[in-house]
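Deliverable D5.2: sample structural annotation.
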Amino acid sequence: MHRKLAALLIVPSIVLSNPFETTLQDEIQWLEEETFVVSASRVKENIKKTPASITVIDSDMIEKMGANNILEVLATVPGLGVTQSNIYVKEIESRGIKDWFSQQILFMVDGHSLDANLINGGATWSFSDLKLENIKQIEVIKGPASALYGANAFTGLVNIITKKAEDINGSEVKLKIGSYNTKEVNLLYGEKFEDLSITANINIFKSDGNNVYVPSKNASTDPYKKQLQTNLKLNYKDFYLSSLFNKREDGPHFGPAGGITDESKPKNEYFFIETGLKKDINRKLNINIRGYYDLYKFNNYWELFEESYTTINKITNEKNGIEAIAAYNLNENYTFLIGSMFEKHKQYDSKTIQNYDGNFNILASMTDMSNTSLSFAPKVDRNMKAVYVNNLYDFTENLRFTFGVRYDKYSDFGSNTAPRGGFSWQLNKNNTLKASYGEGFRAPTFEELYNNSVVISGTSNLKSEKVETYELTYENRYNKLENSITYFHNFFSDIITNNNQNADEYITKGIELESKYDLTRGSFIGMNYTYLEAKDDSTNEDLSDVAKHKGNIFFNYRINKYLNSYNHVFLKGKTKRVLGDIRDDVSGYAVFNTVLKVGKLYKNTEFKLTVNNIFDKKYYDPARSGLIEEDYLNNGRNFTFEVKYSF
């Protein structure tokens, strides 16, 4: 049955094709592509030159893989993992380290940090369903990037680079339907008028989600989602203005204490606006000055347990700041970058309304606890100042050294210094060796410092979490075959525990392998694999909820200039339970996905059919012992069909 279903999806596209329908220009394009990145050093450089461990996913690859949101893309990156938590949001694991809010990974849009959720840290609460239609390139740095970006660039960095007006050059309408009553509309516009360029994107998304029956609770989840997302960019000569707005509402899933909380309804809004100047003063000096304002609000109706303990939490977070960067090319071999920034963080309009007291006694009615010791979060603010330098030195044409350092000072918990250094050595045309050392930190969140919840309280004397990372990478290219192998070793200290203490120390190390073979005319086959050892340094026990083995296999067949078939297998080894959980480890699995794209057969219209989990594999993410008896069941076979019209 499985083989028949796969054949129905893939074989028709091959029968309809003419595999030799191509042009010389197509062939040249596939062979001569070079990849440039900006996130590794905050200046544009060839990816071969940077010592950072970085993965790039461009818009063409995003289109091929049929991903619906940012997390589906990140799940294919070696060293990263995405799993379900018991508080609605997905957790992103980076080389063995993860938490509920993924606050140890810095998410950015065009270099603008999305971590304005100051109460919890991290961006996934708002942006786990960040849409992809306006994305030109995603740059993922694995390992600390605090030497350039500061606090949350602790275990990694995800910089989402949006499209310019000339990348769009007109308008685009996309309609999407899919399983779980999913509906989506996306409008994209980009146009350049002499010195002025405009790009705008609006996305409306709604889905019932995958309702899962949980026998031990005799109830079902109802994880519906509603989301509105808009993005606007204006460029006039050397000046720019950009903004993003995201509003979403989620339906009941699993509650924080493991119950099926069928009335919970988290809502949040996020908005930022940034304006700045990017100017080449002369051939040697470039400056970038920007100011920005971020606003984050949530209004959460929670059921802690089934039908009993309910809480309404409201909060507003603000972040505003200014940053100035200057890059100076002393000569063709040496670039010096210096930057400084100042931010003000504020938390206010906190509301706590609940029907239970500090001893978990049920009250007669919902009671306002905002001005009591049970208040969810207090009014609080802090300042952050930072200065950093970065140096790129080409000792020879094929050997680049990179070294830099950043100093951050927070008004409420202290300061941090994060150095980094490394080299990239092109041994010859086909072989490159890279090595790097870096340190990173994660600042304590407002919740960890000041929270007043009856479940857990903040600790005012917390220090930042810290990490030291060593990496060694070897890259090889022979004709159309590309290979890379990276060894990494991380030492984490002062990790903040569940009861908000700097106590845990972890060691993670492993190997990431990548291989890709370009067949011809845009067809390719490839794989990646991650082997990971992650241990608690004090107990020498393996960390829980982390798989030692993960990988991806993908095959893209560009049938002709109209048809493309992309096929993907995600593999994951067994996952260890938390200490004290006597159940067997969570089993490993393989999940098969396929995408068929039909491009511009009728005017400027494109069609795409995506089928995920083709063989309807039942696979699970681990639930913590004592919260729920069953593990979290992931999506079964599901499809998405989309139509895109450009004009």
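Annotation notes: The first strand starts at residue 36 and ends at 37. The CA atoms of residues 597 and 608 lie 4 Å apart.
The annotation will be released with the project's public dataset once the embargo ends.
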